[in-house]
Amino acid sequence: MNALKNLKPEKVFEFFEMLSSVPHGSNNIWQISNLCCDFAKERGLAYYQDEVGNVIIYKGGSKGYEDKAPVIIQGHMDMVTVKNPDCDIDLEKDGLRLVTDGEYVWAEGTSLGADDGIAVAMALAVLDSDSIEHPPIEAVFTINEETGMDGAEFIDVSNISGRIMLNIDSEDEGIITAGCAGGLKLNASFSVKRSKDYIHAARIAIYGLTGGHSGAEIQKGRANSNILLGRLLSRLGDIRLISAKGGEKDNAIANKTICQIAISNFDAVKKAVEIFESEVKAEYSETDPDLTIRIIDEEFNNSGAIDLVSSKRIIKTIASVPDGVQKLSDDIPGLVQTSLNFGVLNINDYTAEMTFCLRSSVAEEKKELKERLEAIITGNRGKVSTHGDYPAWEYRNNSPLRDTAAAAFEKLYGYKPEISVIHAGLECGLLSDKITGLDCISFGPTIHEIHTTREKLDVASTERTWNFLLEILKSL
Fold it and tell me: Are 266 and 297 contacting, i.e. CB atoms less than 8 angstroms apart?
């Protein structure tokens, strides 16, 4: 602790470091959930913790604000946990090693989790203060946003009285988000049979890709290593799959895929791989300059290769699924309306599994894309399941909160903020669907390369965003 002690705002970074001291990846949230409850107990604040780990902490309004309408400050407790291969931290058991140079904060060897730990830290700093001017506060901390918004879907909104919500889950300072896409997760699985009558084994590695967030960065046209593998394997003729592992999260663009195959002619396959590498390096020279594909001859264990028929079905699926931007908005220039990300591929001894993240601001388009993907998978004898289906957060023409926030921003910084609708998913959609009349916005400090080990939180931006939050609270 105390790695961030000299940074401002002091309390925000103090609480962010406290939260970072315990593991809090998606589906591993109980330590951070209990930490928030302990915080409330120590300060005599009323709180509610439900059976899945969502937490609500309540605080009355400051002097002169007691009778104001309550305000929800909302963020999620979980983070996307990724680490470098040489990092010895166990993200299921250990906290993060925070580092700062005064300009940025990052975590040594791992993702930082400023998405969305900074929201929880800011809310705790408001709750902790005796001097901040604010209406009654309901701080709502949800679980597992990154893996399907389970917390927002489960939470009992009868425990929430506010109809004004400040979601602090955006990553670009100066932008007030006022709408977002809906989405869902789709899983495909294929049963496999194995036999040992193959001649040769080889390992193909596709790596060095840029990757990124499938909501915020899908429009940048970056390569997806799982998709590249499908394109490559479809060229190699009658090869048989042994194993594969690609991507880490359904909502992250896959940047590394490794596949083991059984083949009859290593030299011919090696030549085909080299030709393919040359083609895709040219294709993605701007977006993925470090893209690399390698094939090596290797010894193979005794579990056997997948039979040829099953291999062909799986390869056909990987090569056929759509990926990336499917449609741009007709109304908002440059806004992605519908997209699909092939996030995770895993072929083990008994099954081949694929995970996809679908997003759209148009419910019918999301449904049609889901049905198209299902048809490809089931047509190749795969099974489909879906979860984490959440609605779009529709832009409101009349939003007093948005107007108040925009005026507060301009008062502080002398220019108007950008009002934006985004393609990435936010819990505002689910909560707006559940809480009648909810007026909400999303904002946050600048965070670079979220969901990667290169994630960095801008310190000066954090202080400005904190001041913006305080100005909004004072103005409501």
Answer: yes
Contact 289, 316 (CB under 8 A): no
Q: Is the pTM of this model over 0.85?
A: no
- Specify the amino acid at residue 242: I
- Position 198 scores a pLDDT of 58
Q: Which of 14, 17, 78, 169 is catalytic?
A: 78
What percent of the chain is predicted at pLDDT more than 90? 84
Q: Which of 145, 248, 277, 449 is catalytic?
A: 145
Average pLDDT, the chain: 94
Mean pLDDT value of segment 90-105: 97
In whole angstroms, what is the distance from residue 351 CA to residue 354 CA?
10
Q: Is 78 a catalytic residue?
A: yes
User: What pLDDT shows up at residue 248?
Assistant: 87
Determine the average pLDDT of the residues in 402-419: 97
Judge whether 51 counts as a catalytic residue: no
Q: What is the pLDDT of residue 342?
A: 98
Structure-block tokens of residue 450: 């979220």
